[in-house]
């Protein structure tokens, strides 16, 4: 498996504030990766480190086999759209495309022009007079037209209305389907990630709580409902992530690499949002490894 991003013990400190600490992660190529986590988890810091915009205080990070920002050739292979989809308000759409062509040796003018035409944008229009969704599309056009091997998007649709978000993500997926580019997309909007992502990374308190292909993760996590019982009475093959109880009933969120069936309980699959929220809650109370949460005694796992 080819790895496009590899972090080991990665950390970034600003004075007394630790923005990212002890982050270990491997991201496979050919995926559209959803990066999720609460505010302050270190998502933007991680992505800025991956782009070479900032340098780590501790640990190491490699992107596409080399240090981020290590040279023009490495920078040319990474496209980045920041959280505020930065553009130059006084420049026209055409000016942005000309700037992209001058700064990127592998610039695809045909692709850039076709995207602007499909979006119905006037090349002579100043970008500052465009809507938020249109500015986001211009930023995405600049990022993809440099023909990167890795496209990094830091919450690019957070401020957009639902229609603009859908159009942005549709344009992204059309590009990925045609060119096979690897993508890392950070977002709070799990419903958007559910539509486009096939790999998930959950980052909480700078640590990776879970990482893997979405189908594999959803296929190994379940909601188990049964008559009132303690978590430690469940079979050893079930890893209890969360437990809630009523007077007569217990509900557990469990991970099971090998499914255990019992007529005394009901197993229901989790959707992506349930999975993400479970690991966010779990990450606030327990450290985790790069791909699997630390096993805690069942009684401690009860909520």
TrEMBL record:
Keywords: ATP-binding, Nucleotide-binding, Transport. Residues 5-230 form the ABC transporter domain. Signal peptide: none annotated. SUPFAM superfamilies: P-loop containing nucleoside triphosphate hydrolases. GO terms for molecular function: ATP binding; ATP hydrolysis activity. PANTHER family: ABC TRANSPORTER, ATP-BINDING PROTEIN. Belongs to the ABC transporter superfamily. This is ABC transporter ATP-binding protein. It comes from Streptomyces arboris.
């Amino acid at each position: 498996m080819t790895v496009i991003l590899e972090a080991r013990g990665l950390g970034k400190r600003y004075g007394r504030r630790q923005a990212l600490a002890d982050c270990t992660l491997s991201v496979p190529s050919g995926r559209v990766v959803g990066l999720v986590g609460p505010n302050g988890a270190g998502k933007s810091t991680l992505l800025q480190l991956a782009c070479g915009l900032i340098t780590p205080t501790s640990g190491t990070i490699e992107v596409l086999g080399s240090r981020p920002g290590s040279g023009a050739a490495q920078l040319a292979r990474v496209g980045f759209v920041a959280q505020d989809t930065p553009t130059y308000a006084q420049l026209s759409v055409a000016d942005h495309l000309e700037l992209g062509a001058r700064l990127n040796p592998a610039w695809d003018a045909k692709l850039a022009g076709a995207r602007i035409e499909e979006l119905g944008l006037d090349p002579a229009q100043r970008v500052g007079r465009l809507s938020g969704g249109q500015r986001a599309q211009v930023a995405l056009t600049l990022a993809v037209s440099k023909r990167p091997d890795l496209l990094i998007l830091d919450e690019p649709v957070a401020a957009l209305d639902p229609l603009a978000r859908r159009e942005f993500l549709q344009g992204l997926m059309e590009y990925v389907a045609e060119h096979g580019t690897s993508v890392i997309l950070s977002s709070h909007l799990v419903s958007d990630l559910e539509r486009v992502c096939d790999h998930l990374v959950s980052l909480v308190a700078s640590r990776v709580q879970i990482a893997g292909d979405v189908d594999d993760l959803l296929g190994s996590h379940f909601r188990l409902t049964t008559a009132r019982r303690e978590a430690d009475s469940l079979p050893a093959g079930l890893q209890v992530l969360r437990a809630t109880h009523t007077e007569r009933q217990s509900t557990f969120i469990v991970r099971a690499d090998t499914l255990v069936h019992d007529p005394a309980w009901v197993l229901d699959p989790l959707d992506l949002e349930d999975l993400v929220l479970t690991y966010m809650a779990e990450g606030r109370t327990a450290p985790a490894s790069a791909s699997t949460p630390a096993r805690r005694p069942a009684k401690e796992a009860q909520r």
